[in-house]
Each structure stands twice: as C-alpha cells, then as structure tokens.
Amino acid sequence: MLEKGLKSLLVLAFSLFLTINSTSVFAQGKENTEPAKKEEGKLNIKEVIFGHVSDAHEFHFFSIHHTDGTETAVAIPLPVILYSPQNGFSFFMYSKFEEEKVVDGYQLDGEKIVAADGSDVYDFSLTRNVVQMMLALILLVWIMTSIAKKYKSGQGVTSAPKGMQAVMEPVIAFVRDEVAVPNLGYKANKYLPYLLTIFFFILINNIIGLIPGSANVTGNIAFTLVMGVISFIVTLFSSNKHYWTHIFNPPGVPLGVKFILVPVEFLSMFLKPFSLIIRLFANMIAGHIIIICLVSLIFIFADKMGTGAGWGASPLSLAFTIFIYFIEVLVAFLQAFIFAALTAVLIGSAVEGDHSHDAHDAHRHGHELPDDAVII
Predict the structure, then answer these.
(1) What's the predicted TM-score (pTM) here?
(2) For residue 216, is it within any domain?
C-alpha cells in the first residue's frame, strides 16, 4: 500500500510541475530567444542562429533578394490557431501576416503572435515542431506496419528479409540484445516495444532535423522534457518494494549515514531522468548551432572584410561544415541509442531484485534468463 501511494504521489507531483510550467517551457524559442533588431545593412548572427534552431510558424528554406532591396521568402506557411476570451477562436495561415499587419485582431511581436489590444492569447497553432513530430510519427507507424505485414505474409520468416525488413531487423535485434536484455533480463520483451518506440521516434526526428529548412525537434527542451517525464513515469510504475527499500532504507548502511544517503538517493531519482532531458537537448541543439556558425563564417568575412574575403573563406568553411554534418548523422544515431539505453537502465534499477528472486520469477513465468544478461 505504501509503495503504491508513493508512486501515485510522485506522478501527481510531476503532473503538477508540468501543468504549472507548460506555458514557459513550450514558449522556448519565442519569448526567450527573440532576435535582436537587425541593424540596417548589417548581418545579425543572433537572428540567423535562433531563427534556425527555434520553433516557428513556417518552414523557411531561403530568401531571394531583389535588386530593389526587397526579398521573397521561400517558405511553407502553417495554420495559426488562436483563442482569446474576447474574440474566441481564429484560424488563418501564417502567410497572411505578410499581407496585413493585423489579422483578426492579432499582430506579430517579433516571432510571437499577440493580440493588438493587449488581451490574453492562447496559441494552439501547428508550429513546425508540431508538424514535424506528426510527420515523424506517421513515418514511424508506416514503416513498422508495412514491415509487420511482410512478416505476417511469411516474408522474413520462411525466406530472407528484403528491402526495409533487411534494414530494420538488425537495428531491432541490436536494441533488443544490447539495450533491453542486458538491463532487463527476462523482462526485456515486456519493455522492448517501449524502448524501440522511443529509439526510432528520436532517431527519425534527429535525421529529419538534419534536412535544411526542417525543424530541430529534438533540440527543443519541450520535446526532451516530455520524453524524459514519460520514461520517469514508466520507471515509477515498474518499481517494486526492493527499489523503494534501497532509497528510503538502504541495507547494510549505518543509521547515521542513512540520514545523508536517503535524501541523496531520493534526489537522484529525479536527477536521472533530468539528465536524459538535458543530454538529448544539449547535444542536438549544439550540433545545429555549430553548423550554422560555420556556414555563417562566409557571410561574416564578407560583411566585415569584403566580398573577396567571403569567397576566400568559403572552401574552408564548407569543408568543416560537411565534416560536422557527417558527425551529426553519427550523433543522431548515438543519441537515440543513449536515450533508449539509459531508459532501460532506469527501468532495470526499478525492477531489480536479488538474483535468486529473479531466477525464481523467470522460472515461474516460463522464461529463461539469457546467458549474457546482467540484472541491474
């Protein structure tokens, strides 16, 4: 009873935390990253960097500058969905702000949409982060269902896998053998669907985020926060009496030390999923910023030292950019693996018990522990 009560209390605390902080978290890349005003004829690097890594209401690819000083943006505008107590719901495309300064009583304040009369606004728009996550989810479901249909038809069972099957099967086997089994033992199959889901969902978003003009979804703290909290909740609901005993009454520890160790262990329970959140966010946003900065070196040299200096810096800048880009492809796979692996470690620590207990449960449920399994 106490164990269930602790689980419910911790889930409630995290839910309240998300509710209270949701507005500030999902505003990342808007209020706190509002670009400085562009000086006339000067390159604003801050605007360029944050314009690429922050969320937006359109997929912007590039701009065409005309001889008369005007420019045409090549972009895909997204639908804007707003609600205010005074005006109710409003629906329009983001491109309407290019034609009118005030649309349905709303205007732009930097990258943020605000009410012209200063009243409260609730933004439910489909930003590029949201749209890209939907596309990634659709792509993931399509790939997995198409592969499942092939297995049901016998392809890959009575014959060698082909096409996408041949690509995905080794990856799935790798996650099972190197992530799930070593950390979860005979319970690996129970949590394998979740581990595979977060691995491929993060991987697909990482890969799509490397396409020029796309959104850096995994470099948004809101995305990584939700992924980390889900892993934390799964860990809590997977925990057993042994897990809570090690936190609140560590065995074999002197009483005086317990007064120090128990708060540390309790705090580490929250810090572990927090490290998941920060690790994925920091690695993905850092890589994108480095690529943008390397490309921007060309324009910085041209702006400060003339067009010739810009052309002279181009080969070296592009060479480093291509090198870092390939490193980012590796990081995309690596970060998906690390997130899934550390999630498995967290769940494994929650379901752990003494080895004799694990072997007894495995035998009772008709499972066999793999020879190389390590119960954490």
Answers:
(1) 0.78
(2) yes
